[in-house]
Amino acid sequence: MMKKSGVLKMEKEKNIKGIKIRNFNTFMIVIACALYAMLLYATAQMTSRYNDFIRYNDEYIACHESAIEMNAASDYLTDQVRLFTQNMDLQYMNNYFKEANESKRREKAIANLQKYQPTDDELQALEAAKASSMDLMEREIYAMKLIAMAKGYADYQLPQEVRQVKLLGIDKDLSKEAMIARARELVYNRSYMNAKALIKSHSDHFVNNLMRRTASVQKNSMAALDKSLCNQKLLISLLFVMNIITFLVVTMLIVKPLSVYMKCIREKMRLETMGAYEFKYFAMTYNDIYELNEANQAMLEHKATHDPLTGIMNRSAFEGLKDFLKQSPKPMALILLDIDRFKGINDTYGHEMGDKVLQKVGHLLSGYFRSGDYPVRIGGDEFIVILNDFDEVNKNTIKHKLNLINNELQDTADGLPLVTLSVGVAFSKKGYSDELFNQADAALYAVKEAGRNGVRFYNDIKNIIK
Length: 466
Known about the structure:
The protein is an alpha+beta fold. It contains 16 helices and five strands. The chain has helices at residues 2-15, 21-87, 90-103, 105-114, 120-151, 160-163, 169-172, 176-188, 190-266, 277-301, 315-325, 342-349, 351-368, 395-409, 434-449, 458-465; strands at 332-339, 374-379, 382-388, 421-428, 454-457.
């Protein structure tokens, strides 16, 4: 029999066609990991290229600022020497040498430009500019010496560079006015202007070439950054598309079948064979069980779960219910009831009247308690009510309902004899247990010992019992 069942199972699996969730999940995980890895790489690459772009941009700006600073320093020296030859104020000479010896803006600018690895051609232009600049400074210092001699400044008033200059023979014999004129000519004539232009030409050649190279590198870096950004956008788009595909596949293969299956189960119908392979297999297996259940339904229905007299659950159902309630994590209450002196009713009024009393008790228990509670006739005149998800805080509710039931049982307007109930109640913090029944029984015993017709709670008497 088992061998035949295994063969049928294999044949059923072969007949099922569809995408397996496990395979699809593995495939999508692999694709997602690959895309995420590529995205991380693209992001790292873009970050690197962005940093390169910022660095090259900073270099370009630094080159531009150094070039401006170099020209400004050169023009400042020219301005100071010319002002000195015009005004012959030592302040201008001091400004000149303070710039040349202390501030050294031109030298610092040149040093900054040399950091950016100039080519041989650029270096030659830079060295030519330096040489021409030194020659021009000698001319300027010589002009300042002429002015100092013409004005008769003492050596201690002059910078060392000026003191060290020796006038040429033809200039020594010049008058003061001629020396002044000679000095002014040296810093204003065409030769001086040509020397300035030559220096600027060499420096511009160096700076412009360097800045063109820096700008080219900056442009290439920007292009590389744009490319990395495009790659990142592409990968993000692919991930988005993959997520959409995953969503659609999950909806078609999992969510939709689950929704249909839930509806079929609620309506107690066969499941439609749809969705992923696993769901189709589940549906076919469920349908096999469903058909088997329907075939056995007729046989199972004869096992009555309700007491035919009172219409509430019988002891057999209670035994099955206990196993179910033992697994419950919720608090509950167990009410154990006896009809006081029920035997006397049977003896006095007959068993038919006794049955009507039992029916009345069963009806009241069903009516006064919730639809989710379990009233049970466990035999004779003994009843149980199990209140699921009910804790001791609400015990006054139980007492009130039992008092109402007792009041109705004592009302003889329906032609039935007056009866009372003895009731014991116990509470459990989690599910049903045999101890719960024993505690309710102990509380019921305490009521009977006290003369019947009452309600006692186990927690109220347990210290007395001990």
